């Protein structure tokens, strides 16, 4: 789930779209979500902008497969987003502004891998309402996370930067370790004998002034 957190903050996502497909079946629901996102991408491309979005799919215990799409939509393209959303019923497409990215990312991780009762209890208690309780997700055939080409390119840059930072940290740590070992392996220097103390010169008696 680190991918979702990185994308939401680096891309500065400001819109979340919940897509509830009106069809039954996992394959049909995934296809409906992909078609809706592709339509929005085509509308933005006509204005010279690619859609920067990442979709997280969830399946509830009742069998409803839906997707939450995190997107970065510029203010001048809000009219396109509104036209696109008006093509679908309100129960199918729900568009909302993002005011708390950290809270939204925590919400999208509710169907995470079970970490055990103790860790889950501490995690929920530590983060409070911003980290919802674990929700068991039903399995389905397909990927849990899907992104557009622009989002994939951005994630590749994030991973490359993370790899570069990790490499630099590893090199720095190796350099410091080698330096500490080399210094520790040096023989201890024996300080030279102190120089002999010199006798202070004898004090001269003050001369008496002759009286005229």
Number of helix segments? 6
Structural class comes to alpha+beta
- What is the helix fraction of residues, given as a range? 40-55%
> In CATH terms, what is the fold-level topology?
Alpha-Beta Plaits
How far do the termini sit from each other? Answer: 106 Å
Keywords:
44% helix; alpha+beta; Alpha-Beta Plaits; 5 strands; 6 helices; 14% strand
Characterize the structure shown.
Strand 2 and strand 3 form a beta hairpin. The protein has one domain: Alpha-Beta Plaits. The chain is elongated, with a radius of gyration of 34 Å. With 212 residues, it is an alpha+beta fold. Strands 4-1-3-2-5 form a five-stranded antiparallel β-sheet, sandwiched between helices. 44% of the residues lie in helices and 14% in strands. The mean pLDDT is 76. The protein has helices at residues 2-10, 26-45, 78-86, 101-108, 117-127, 149-185, and strands at residues 15-19, 52-59, 65-72, 93-97, 145-147.
Which helices and strands appear, and what pairs or packs with what?
Layout: H1 2-10, E1 15-19, H2 26-45, E2 52-59, E3 65-72, H3 78-86, E4 93-97, H4 101-108, H5 117-127, E5 145-147, H6 149-185
Antiparallel strand pairs: 1-3, 1-4, 2-3, 2-5
Helix pairs in contact: 1-6
Short description:
This protein is α+β, with helices and mostly antiparallel strands. The protein has helices at 2-10, 26-45, 78-86, 101-108, 117-127, 149-185, and strands at 15-19, 52-59, 65-72, 93-97, 145-147.
């Amino acid at each position: 789930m680190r991918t979702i957190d990185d994308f939401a903050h680096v891309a500065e996502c400001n819109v979340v779209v919940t897509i509830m497909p009106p069809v039954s079946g996992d394959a049909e629901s995934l296809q409906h979500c992909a078609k809706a996102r592709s339509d929005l991408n085509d509308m933005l491309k006509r204005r010279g902008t690619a859609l920067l979005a990442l979709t997280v799919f969830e399946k509830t215990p009742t069998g409803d497969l839906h997707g939450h799409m995190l997107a970065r939509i510029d203010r001048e393209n809000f009219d396109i987003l509104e036209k696109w959303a008006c093509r679908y019923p309100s129960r199918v497409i729900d568009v909302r502004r993002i005011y708390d990215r950290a809270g939204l990312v925590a919400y999208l991780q509710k169907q995470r891998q079970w970490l055990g009762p103790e860790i889950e209890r501490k995690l929920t208690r530590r983060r409070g309402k911003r980290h919802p309780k674990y929700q068991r997700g039903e399995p389905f055939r397909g990927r849990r996370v899907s992104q557009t080409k622009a989002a994939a390119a951005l994630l590749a840059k994030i991973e490359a930067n993370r790899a570069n930072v990790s490499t630099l940290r590893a090199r720095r740590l190796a350099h410091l370790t080698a330096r500490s070992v080399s210094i520790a392996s040096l023989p201890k220097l024996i300080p030279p004998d102190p120089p002999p103390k010199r006798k202070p010169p004898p004090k001269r008696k003050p001369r008496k002034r002759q009286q005229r």
